[in-house]
């Protein structure tokens, strides 16, 4: 009975979160990085894809082509950084085999830019000053992380802060956690804890309906949110933030998104 009540609460919270997101960014796709394999049993060059979608699935769909990605980086448990290089039209792999055992972090930065809605449709890469008949303008920055392991989970790279405008920082290593445990994350905005931020989570296979999440919670005054890992397999956590653009003659708003994927045993 308690489990049923908890699931019902989660679904209600998720529906509220999805409604809030869709009302403000209905046309915008979310972006995240997904590993092709979250557990490497031996040293290898891991592969990842970047996704632009409203539906979290595994294997990934709605892949972003490599020319639409600004940078890919792999960070080992010992702090060693390895550049990601294109592998086909929509994949990336580490430049060489990753040998350090433990939990690794992959980091994807998407190109920042304008999207302006006009009476003739959306104009990508154009500000209000570049086009006529403007309805609204948004400038976006998107950041994605993925945690994976070589051998067993270990090390502190999972909690490394990267200085992104908006960032999800795990306070426990989800790669070492099991179903039913509670994971804490800190959300940072411009390097400072962000209170009252909505953290939405979903595991692969939860729903075939776009924009549907399995879990939703908010950060406290220290920017910390707790997420109960209610299912095994790949997970996505997503946070968004919006603010006014500094010069309203150029654009109306700045939007930020941060995504984290990982796999639960």
Automatic annotation (TrEMBL):
<keyword id="KW-0732">Signal</keyword>
<dbReference type="Pfam" id="PF10670">
    <property type="entry name" value="DUF4198"/>
</dbReference>
<protein>
    <submittedName>
        <fullName>ABC-type Co2+ transport system periplasmic component-like protein</fullName>
    </submittedName>
</protein>
<dbReference type="InterPro" id="IPR019613">
    <property type="entry name" value="DUF4198"/>
</dbReference>
<feature type="signal peptide">
    <location>
        <begin position="1"/>
        <end position="28"/>
    </location>
</feature>
């Amino acid at each position: 009975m308690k489990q049923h009540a908890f699931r019902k609460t989660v679904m209600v919270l998720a529906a509220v979160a999805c409604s809030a997101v869709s009302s403000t960014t209905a046309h915008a796709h979310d972006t995240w990085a997904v590993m092709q394999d979250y557990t490497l049993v031996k040293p290898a060059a891991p592969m990842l894809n970047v996704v632009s979608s409203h539906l979290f699935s595994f294997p990934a769909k709605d892949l972003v082509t490599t020319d639409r990605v600004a940078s890919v980086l792999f960070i080992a448990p010992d702090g060693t950084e390895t550049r990601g290089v294109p592998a086909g039209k929509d994949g990336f792999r580490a430049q060489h085999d990753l040998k350090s055992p433990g939990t690794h972090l992959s980091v994807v930065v998407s190109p920042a830019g304008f999207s302006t809605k006009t009476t003739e449709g959306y104009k990508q890469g154009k500000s209000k000053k570049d086009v006529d008949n403007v309805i609204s303008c948004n400038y976006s920055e998107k950041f994605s992380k993925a945690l994976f392991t070589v051998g067993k989970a270990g090390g502190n790279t999972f909690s490394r802060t990267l200085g992104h405008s908006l960032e999800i920082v795990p306070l426990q290593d989800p790669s070492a956690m099991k179903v039913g445990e509670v994971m804490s994350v800190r959300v940072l905005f411009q390097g400072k804890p962000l209170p009252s931020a909505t953290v939405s989570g979903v595991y692969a296979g939860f729903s075939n309906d776009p924009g549907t999440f399995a879990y939703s919670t908010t950060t406290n005054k220290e920017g910390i949110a707790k997420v109960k890992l209610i299912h095994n397999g790949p997970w996505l956590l997503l946070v968004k933030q919006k603010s006014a653009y500094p010069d309203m003659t150029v654009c109306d708003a700045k939007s930020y998104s941060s995504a984290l994927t990982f796999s639960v045993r």
